[in-house]
Amino acid sequence: MTESPNNERKSTTAQANLAKGFMFAAIGLLLFACMDSATKYLTEHYNVPFVVAIRYLVHFALMVLVLAPRYSTPMLQTKRRGLVILRAMVLVVASLSVGMALHRMPQAETTAITFLAPMLVVLLACPLLGERIGAVGWLAAIAGFVGILLIARPGGGLDVIGVTFALLAAGANAAYQLLSRILAATERPITLLFYTALAGSIVFGVALPWTWENQAPTYLELALFIGMGVAGGLGHYFFTLAYSYATASFLAPVIYLQLVWAGLLGWLIFGNSPDHLSLLGMTIVAGSGLMIGLKSRFGRKT
Asked: In sequence order, what are the residues at sequence separation of 6 or more whose Cβ sits closer than 8 angstroms to the Cβ of residue 177?
C-alpha cells in the first residue's frame, strides 16, 4: 500500500523541522561554549563576579532594547512567580560556580563535570516528579559518576577547588532543569529568559561596588565582555527556538555537542588537551547522557 501525498508531505515537513531543531540547538550550544571561552579568558584578568555581572547586564540590556518593545507584557506575566524567581536564582548560582571553575580549570573538563546535571535530574525526578528511573536510567547515572571520577581523579592535575565549583554548578544546573520541567506547563520561554536575566543583573549589579575592577579594558577585552553577553542571550534564544521544531527527547542527546565545542575551543584558544583518562571520562559522561536522552525519546520503561 503506497503512502498518500499528504502523509508524504507531513513526513517531509517533520524531518525538515527536526533538522531545523538540530541546527538551532547546535548553534545555541556553540554560543554557550563561546561564552564559556570568553568567561575563562576574562577571569584570568578580572575577578569572576565582575565578569559574570557584565554578562548578565549585557544580556538584560539586550532583552530590554530588542524584545521589550514587542513582548513587554508576556515577558512580565507569570503564573508561578515564586518558582520562576527560584529558578532564576538557581541559575545565578550556577553561573557564578561555572565562572569560578573555569578560572581554575580547563574548559573541556569543566564542561564535562557540569554535564553531571542530567544524571542528577534522572535521580531526583523520581522522588520529586514521580518519574520512573528504570534500569537504563540507573545504569546511565552510575556510568556518568564513573566518568566524573576519571576526569576529577586524584593526581589528575585538576584544581580541587575548581572541581568543587564545577560539581556545585552541576547540582545547580540539575535544580534549574527540574524547575524548568515544572514551569514549562505554565510559563512562556521568554518570561523565564527575562527573569533569569533580571535576577542575575540585580544580584551581581548590587555586588558591583565591591567587585568593580578599576582598570580600562583593552579593545579585545571590551569586545569579549560584550560578546559574552550577546552569546549568552542568543544562545538561550536559539536553544529555546529549537524546541519549537523538535521535541525535548530528540534534543536531549544533542546537548552533548557542547562537550565537542568546549574541547575544540579549549584546544584552539588555550592549548588545553585532556589526557587519555580524562578523555575516556568525558566520553563516558557523554555516553551516559545519550543513554538518558535515547531512553526518553523511545519511551524505554526498563
From this structure: 117, 118, 121
Positive or negative CA dihedral for 206, 212, 218, 224? Answer: negative
Measured distance CA(209)–CA(157) in Å, rounded: 35
User: How many domains does the chain divide into?
Assistant: 1
Is residue 9 in some structural domain? no
Determine the structural domain holding residue 261 and report its residue range.
24-298
Query: How crowded is residue 257: how many other Cβ atoms within 10 Å of its Cβ?
Result: 18
* Within-domain flag for 93: yes
pLDDT for 202 equals 94
> Do the domain assignments include residue 18?
no
- At 294, is the secondary structure helix, strand, or coil? helix
pLDDT for the residue 296: 54
pLDDT along the chain (302 residues), means of 10: 56 70 85 91 91 90 84 83 92 93 88 78 68 69 76 73 92 84 80 89 90 84 90 80 69 72 84 78 74 57 44
- SS3 for 131? coil
**C-alpha cell, 51:** 565578569
Collapsing DSSP to helix, strand or coil, 229 comes out as helix
Residue 126 forms part of a structural domain: yes
Contact 119, 145 (CB under 8 A): yes
pLDDT value for 252: 63
216 exposure class (CB count in 10 Å sphere: 0-12, 13-18, 19+): exposed
Residue 254 gets which letter from DSSP?
Answer: G
